[in-house]
Amino acid sequence: MKKILITGANGLLGQKLVHLLTQQPNVELIATARGNNRLPFSEGYTYRSMDITDRQQVLDVINETHPDVVIHGAAMTDVDKCETQKDDCWSQNVHAVEYIVEACKATDAFLVHVSTDFIFDGAEGPYDETAEANPISFYGWSKQAGESVVRHSPVRWAIARTVLVYGIAHDMSRSNIILWVKKSLEDGKNIKVVTDQWRSPTLAEDLAMGCYLIADQEAEGIFNISGKEVITPYEMAIRTADYFSLDKALIAQADASTFTQVARRPPRTGFVLDKARTVLGYDPHSFEEGIAVLASQLNK
Ligand SMILES: NC(=O)c1ccc[n+]([C@@H]2O[C@H](COP(=O)([O-])OP(=O)(O)OC[C@H]3O[C@@H](n4cnc5c(N)ncnc54)[C@H](OP(=O)(O)O)[C@@H]3O)[C@@H](O)[C@H]2O)c1
User: Fold this and answer.
1) How far, in Å, CA of 273 to CA of 286, rounded?
2) Which among 189, 196, 268 is positioned nearest to 234, based on CA atoms?
């Protein structure tokens, strides 16, 4: 039996982890998040309220539950908000990691820390695990600093880096590119989508599986855990329209420079997955398969 504690259980990754881990017969799950449990079901796991910016709470909860593995997915993930609310961002994405590391050290837990392609400048993706970080946003900088805390810590650790996660979760206000394109085209709206950014869009279920494979094997080091294609948002929109048989003529090409966003985005990221495939047996869905998974959840 492996006891796994996850942070940010109410988030997109968190919810998928709860679904996946409650189905594993050899896993005892402790789901933590700030405030109340907002998950739609409460069977098969224990819920503990844990604000990751509260050092004492982090130390107490992890010490009392004594997990074998901690999967740390909670973070401040709104890239533009991180640019304007730097103190909050640093507290959630860096100081919180220090508390998690301290608690893992005290309990000898293995740490799986979730990170991002935004630690790179996007000059020459796709990246492998050895590529040099060079963030161009405060969010990216904070996530790189979080990684650094983990890498220089005395705990046994893994870092799971991911890219543009999409999926459907309960009670979430945040949309994703597939739902946005689908809804816009169904409403007959013209949309502009960028052709000069490249990403490996990641089905949230695949990210959860990657984190679980790392946790199960307690595989140490950095792992790229993303989708397997490197495509532009424009290409994602076209494929979404194709999948749902919607009018592609409503989709116009645009340059990222025509959008005003507070934080800069790296132009070309995307990941090379060879290490995760070989070491972990990670095998993500294609983008079309991912749309199908999401579509099946929409119809429920
Ligand atoms: N989404 C992406 O495209 C993407 C891309 C690359 C990397 N990542 C990384 O993947 C991980 C998971 O992201 P996600 O997509 O699941 O994001 P998400 O849906 O925004 O979930 C993040 C969760 O963190 C929680 N959280 C924030 N501050 C907290 C605190 N002080 N105490 C406890 N929980 C707190 C949030 O809680 P509330 O629900 O209460 O706000 C939220 O549920 C993050 O580490 C992110 O940096 C995501």
Assistant:
1) 13
2) 196
Domains of the chain: 2-168+201-228+271-285 (3.40.50.720)
Contacts 24+ apart (CB under 8 A), 42-45: 45/18, 45/21
**At residue 264, does pLDDT exceed 90?**
yes
CB 226 within 8 A of CB 284: yes
- The residue whose CB lies within 8 Å of the most ligand 1 atoms, and thus the one to mutate among 165, 172, 222, is 165
Q: How far is the CA of 245 from the centre of ligand 1 (A)?
A: 32
Q: In this structure, are residues 58 and 115 in contact, taking their beta carbons and an 8 Å threshold? A: no
Mean local confidence (pLDDT), 123-140: 98
Give the ligand 1 atom nearest the CA of 207: 10
3-state SS assignment for residue 159: strand
pLDDT score for 296: 94
- Looking at the chain, the whole-number percentage of residues with pLDDT higher than 90 is 94
Q: How far apart are CA 298 and CA 179, in angstroms?
A: 10
- As to burial, measured by CB atoms within 10 angstroms (0-12 exposed, 13-18 middle, 19+ buried), residue 41 is exposed
Q: Which residue has the higher pLDDT, 257 or 60?
A: 60
Is the pLDDT at 300 greater than 70? The verdict is: no
pLDDT at 257: 87
Q: HEC string of 207-256?
A: HHHHHHHHHHHCCCEEEECCCCCCECHHHHHHHHHHHCCCCHHHEEEECH
Q: Burial of 51 by CB count in 10 Å (0-12 exposed, 13-18 middle, 19+ buried)?
A: middle
How far is Cα 144 from Cα 137, in angstroms, rounded to an integer?
11
Rounded alpha-carbon distances, angstroms, from residue 106 to 61, 100, 156, 219, 221: 12, 10, 12, 20, 20
Task: Tell me the β-bridge partners of 221.
Answer: 158
Nearest CA to ligand 1 atom 42: 11
Q: Tell me how far apart the alpha carbons of residues 58 and 259 are, in angstroms, rounded to a whole number.
A: 39
